[in-house]
Design a protein that fits this description.
The complex is a heterodimer of chains A (293) and B (174). With 293 residues, chain A is mainly α. Chain A is built from twelve helices and no strands. In chain A, helix 3 packs parallel to helix 4, helix 4 runs antiparallel to helix 5 and helix 4 crosses helix 8. Chain A is globular and about 85 Å long. Chain A starts with a helix and ends with a helix. With 174 residues, chain B is of the alpha+beta class. In chain B, 17% of the residues lie in helices and 34% in strands. Chain B is built from two helices and eight strands, in the order H-H-E-E-E-E-E-E-E-E. In chain B, strands 1-8-3-6 form a four-stranded antiparallel beta sheet, covered by helices on one side. In chain B, strands 2-7-4-5 form a four-stranded antiparallel beta sheet, with no helix packed on it. Classes of the chains: A mainly alpha (293), B alpha+beta (174). Chains A and B meet through helix 1, helix 2, helix 3, helix 7 and helix 9 of A and helix 1, strand 1, strand 2 and strand 8 of B.
Chain lengths: 293, 174
């Protein structure tokens, strides 16, 4: 008998809690329908003043960024990517999310350069980290891993599999309102992409790569806005946003420089060695702060 | 007694999860995404943005910027089937607050699905697109709450061998 009464009390309390939370219009008994509608309108007009702006930010895939650099002549250099073993040293959720992005960019770099022997290891790291950050459902179905291993050595097929992974991720993110996390992932991927571009360019490709590096500023601008849109940033993300904002300002100076020379396209813009050196230094420092955990 | 409390907690959490049904309720996009993905072929998928559209009691413009890479060709596919009321979509080469900007594309949401391929060849300095959603004011007959919808925007880029295949209109198949 006591058990029945206890369970009844618990269930009743829960029902009361939920109904109080959801049905604001029923406050004040005796309120007419017209008054309730008017009150709702006034509340919504007040909200309108604040504006329910659900912002959207466009950020390209790590695979496309990698593809663009590779078409510009970016060489593959073994040992540049973040070590697979480093995965275990990322203790905070933010560092895992960031390095999920880093390893995603590394995977794109490896795949685009036909380095199939490393690709499986990096896919496994990406899959493991996805579980840690709540994205495990993307890799749950066995078909991705099986298809990947079956098609090792076939670059085009592997690239298509990675595109599928990207599409699944985008769908998953939207279905679960995880946009804030995806912006952090992209930050890690973007910094890693820039790092690979800086490190893997040589005298022959230097000019072309430098144009590509500067071209990235339009993406950085979107990334900074996206990161800032999250009002509940961790201190790590806030610090990263601050550094990316500084880099964005540096890029703006380069754009002014380009425009002052009446150069329309980044393709034709030659970054000075001093600016390139400054950009490289910043990128290397930023990348180190992410992969060192 | 402990079992009852634990079971009640699970029930409570379950009710909260169902009760807290969020934006997917006004943007059931699964079937639409398949359609949009087919329209992207043969361009390689790079990104999908689900633009949430909230109709308010005054007109307003929502803007999203899309960075472009030089030497790359793009296809953007828009699907507006999930909008409860029609809007206009325009594409510019500069943001709203720019002193001067050119309109390079214009669409009505009544078209339901449409594609846009920026002319990168003749616009060498085009490195960002600005998509403007013109959302008209709306109020229901009974003055009730805001209505919402979404526009699916998917983008793709041409692959390295596209020139060998001519116009770039591939077959999506079934």
């Amino acid at each position: 008998m006591k058990k029945i009464i206890a369970s009844g009390l618990i269930l009743s309390s829960m029902a009361l809690f939920i109904s109080c939370g959801s049905d604001e219009n029923s406050e004040g008994s005796g309120q007419s329908d017209a008054e309730a509608v008017q009150e709702e309108m006034l509340n919504e007009m007040a909200e309108e003043g604040d504006g329910e702006m659900i912002e959207s930010f466009y950020l390209p895939s790590a695979l496309q960024i990698g593809s663009i650099f590779q078409q510009s002549g970016l060489n593959y250099i073994p040992g540049l990517t973040n070590l697979v073993e480093n995965k275990d040293k990322y203790e905070t959720k933010t560092s895992r999310i960031l390095n999920f992005g880093v390893y995603s960019a590394d995977l794109a770099y490896i795949v685009l350069n036909g380095q199939s022997q490393d690709a499986t290891n990096y896919l496994k790291v990406v899959s493991d980290l996805s579980n840690d950050i709540g994205f495990g459902a993307i890799f749950e179905s066995k078909d991705i891993m099986e298809r990947f291993e079956k098609n090792l050595g076939n670059r085009d097929s592997i690239v298509n599999i990675m595109i599928d992974i990207q599409a699944r991720t985008d769908m998953f993110v939207d279905d679960n309102n995880l946009q804030d996390i995806t912006y952090i992932i992209f930050a890690g991927a973007w910094v890693e992409g820039m790092y690979l571009g800086v490190k893997a360019s040589d005298d022959k490709t230097g000019h072309v790569i430098s144009g590509r590096l500067v071209e990235q500023m339009t993406i950085l601008d979107n990334l900074v806005k996206a990161l800032r849109s999250n009002k509940n940033q961790t201190s790590e993300v806030a610090a990263l946003t601050k550094e990316l904002t500084k880099l964005d300002k540096f890029f703006n100076k380069l754009e002014e420089n380009k425009n002052s020379q009446n150069i329309a396209s980044f393709k034709d813009y030659k970054v000075s060695p001093e600016h390139l050196s400054e950009l490289s230094k910043t990128i290397l420092e930023l990348r180190a702060s992410i992969v060192n955990g | 007694m402990k079992k009852i409390i634990v079971a009640s907690i699970f029930l409570f959490v379950g009710i909260l999860v169902v009760h807290g049904q969020n934006t997917t309720s006004y943007c059931p996009k699964s079937d639409v995404v398949v359609k949009v993905r087919k329209a992207l072929v043969p361009y390689k998928y790079t990104n999908m943005v689900v633009n949430r559209i909230v109709y308010k009691r005054s007109n307003y413009i929502k803007e999203i910027s899309i960075p472009l890479f030089y030497d790359a060709n793009y296809r953007l596919v828009f699907n507006t089937e999930l909008l409860p009321e029609d809007i206009k979509i325009k594409i510019f080469d500069a943001p709203q607050d720019a002193k001067k900007r050119n309109e390079i594309g214009s669409f009505e949401s009544s078209e339901r699905q449409f594609t846009f391929e920026p002319d990168m060849e003749n616009n060498k300095g085009l490195y960002e697109l600005y998509v403007n959603f013109y959302i008209p004011a709306y109020i229901a007959d009974d003055g009730s709450s805001f209505i919402k919808g979404c526009v699916i925007l998917m983008s793709g880029y041409e692959d390295e061998v596209s020139e060998e295949f001519g116009s770039g209109d591939g077959s999506a198949g079934e």
